[in-house]
Amino acid sequence: MVTIKQVAEEAGVSVATVSRVLNSNGYVHEETRKAVEKAIEKLHYRPNEIARSLYHHTSKLIGLVVPDITNPFFPELARGVEDYLQQEGYHLMIGNSDENVEKEVQYIEAFRQHNVMGVISSTSEETAEWTKLNIPVVLLDRVQNDFPSVYADQEAGGQMAANILLERGSRNITLLRGPIHLRIAQERFLAALHVLGKSDVHFQVMNTSFSLHDASSTAKQLFDQYPNTDGVIAANDIVASAVLREALLRGKNIPEELQIIGYDDIPVCELLYPALSTIHQPAYEMGKEAAKLLMKSLKQSKKINEQMMLPVSFVERETTRKVEKV
Amino acid sequence: MVTIKQVAEEAGVSVATVSRVLNSNGYVHEETRKAVEKAIEKLHYRPNEIARSLYHHTSKLIGLVVPDITNPFFPELARGVEDYLQQEGYHLMIGNSDENVEKEVQYIEAFRQHNVMGVISSTSEETAEWTKLNIPVVLLDRVQNDFPSVYADQEAGGQMAANILLERGSRNITLLRGPIHLRIAQERFLAALHVLGKSDVHFQVMNTSFSLHDASSTAKQLFDQYPNTDGVIAANDIVASAVLREALLRGKNIPEELQIIGYDDIPVCELLYPALSTIHQPAYEMGKEAAKLLMKSLKQSKKINEQMMLPVSFVERETTRKVEKV
DNA sequence: TTGTAAGCGTTATCAA
DNA sequence: TTGATAACGCTTACAA
User: Fold this and answer.
1) What is the CATH number of the domain that holds B39?
2) Which nt has its C1' nearest the CA of A54?
3) B250 in the same domain as B203
4) CB-CB contact of B311 with B152 (8 Å)
5) pLDDT digits (tens, 9 = 90+) for B194-240
6) What Gene Ontology molecular-function terms does this entry list (chains A, B) (predicted)?
């Protein structure tokens, strides 16, 4: 490892001078600067972030916690975060929490021990522990009043999903509700519920998780219990895919007999047949904005508490009928 | 931030003593040990990894580089890595390389600057840069003779895929070849090619990437150029899904008229309809083994160069015919 | 414009 | 069994 000391020797100056040119701090003669730069170049010197970090109590590290990177919505978020951070010279420590508070606490410890400068969290809204860290935290795809957060317009999304099915003629709708403890899931559920409630169609509600493991059995159960369903508002695209598969398996015509609308717009939607109509959340953008917001609160000392809501949109594909057909 | 000094004061001893109980190093009287532990408890003290890292030139950080976490195969790998590492008390710095050498170099710099202890890389086999780091590197789902690597048995996988289609009666097979610069892709391609070559069936080869963005057009092209194809060996599951969709779109009966076999066994396979038959790569296990291998080479000083090949298996679902039917 | 030296939070050596 | 202290690589007063 080449240190500042060696650079100083090579350039025939003191370490202080090298440090000055490194940080463009204080006065340094043009000549000396060049000499130092030459030495740096020659030795391929790169300052040791660890030493800097120790002195400054800062770092170029950001923590990112997601419930499970294996769930296809999160890689998009993570990628948005990473791309922005990387261009700002920051790097990512990442952890999967499985929505498990113990694990979260472990990461919090790890983050603290590594002088992580800020955290982006897509995990449970149980944020008591996070407050202890005393560094900026931005919630991503999660909402909690005490923290800045970046999320998509769940109310609009829920309404949109319900209205789409209604407009296109579903008369017996099954509404799949996501995890009840997740505010975003609850919000879009409530919004859809409200729309259905104001309509004259028949509808029912089923609970489900967001996860692939439960999706198939949820789908089976749905058609066993409500065989006459002609419209499904799924909790997310994973669940929607499972419903689609099960419907096809039972010989339903889609979208003629049954319309399905998903949520998220994960990449595979367009690979399904029929391709899944869904509510698009701008996941990559959300990640990017969360990172941007975090950078902003790093740069200014006063706490910010911005709530940033990004718009959702309906992506019309093949599991909903064309509106003219109604 | 509470430091070792404060703990020492609280316990009425010197920092050296605290350090000794922290690391269970050297002699320390039972009484004093208890006093120190009490102080630690009381102040919620946690040693600063940064300071340790500076002194020891070590850390609890591992670097992980993947081409693109957005590609559904990599989250499984990453999760396997993370779970194992986490249980060993290590943490992950992660980066997406986009197979871009410049980006890789940036991560290498970042890893070095943070005293990262080892790297797991699923990115290009252009490893010249990695050697410069002088820390253990384990290749994951990539192979290169100079590095330890963990990968799945591509030769068996390629053969299996071809044999499955052959056994089940495909007589006009299109073999989709993945990125030519990737040794694993090339190996499974070659293995499948070899099997087809020894058979008496008609077959053709098309080049494709692994990516979702190219998948649809590849699929279209496939059926435009080779409308009589009755068996497709896809480069991976993404491509297979696109082919499946396109085939369905064109009204083909699956698997009666056309069999499709994927590669990887990403989670969505079972959500498709018909569900995708595929060659299963034990991605999670691979990640875990790579992490294990890395830990091993961290613990012993001499370089290891283990090549670990995990078995693949055929997952029979609905895009291949039952073998009795032939 | 430059250099000396103290300090960031640890660990390890050495002396007591 | 304990405590001073130098060292890890860097930054920043302060002195020159």
Assistant:
1) 1.10.260.40
2) C8
3) yes
4) yes
5) 999 999 999 999 999 999 999 999 999 999 999 999 999 999 999 99
6) DNA-binding transcription factor activity; transcription cis-regulatory region binding
Query: What is the distance in angstroms measured between the alpha-carbon CA of B59 and the sugar C1' of D2?
Result: 28
Contact B75 A69 (CB under 8 A): yes
Contact state of A93 with B92 under an 8 Å Cβ cutoff: yes
CA of A78: which chain B residue's CA is closest?
A: B69
- In one-letter notation, the amino acid at residue A131 is T
Q: Would you call A216 an interface residue with chain B, using a CB distance cutoff of 8 Å?
A: yes
B66 secondary structure, DSSP code = E
Q: Do B79 and A91 touch (CB under 8 A)?
A: no
Name the helix (H) or strand (E) containing B289: helix B283-299
**In which domain, by residue range, is B123 found?**
61-152+283-310
* Contact residues, B window 149-178, toward A, CB-based 8 Å cutoff: none
Contact: B72, A245; criterion CB under 8 Å = no
Q: Residues with Cβ < 8 Å from A59, sequence gap 6 or more?
A: A49, A53, A114, A115, A116, A117, B50
Q: What is the value of pTM for the model shown?
A: 0.94
| C-alpha–C-alpha distance, residues A101 and B245, integer Å | 41
Q: At a CB cut-off of 8 Å and minimum separation 6, what does B92 contact?
A: A93, A94, A95, B61, B62, B63, B64, B78, B81, B82, B85
Same domain, B158 and B240: yes
Question: What is the per-residue pLDDT for A38?
Answer: 96
Domain count, chain B: 3
Residue type, B60: K
Q: How far is the CA of B120 from the C1' of D3 (A)?
A: 43
**Structure-block tokens of residue A1:** 């490892």
- In angstroms, the CA B188 to CA B261 distance is 13
Instruction: Inform me whether the C-beta atom of residue A298 falls under 8 Å from chain B C-beta atoms.
Output: no
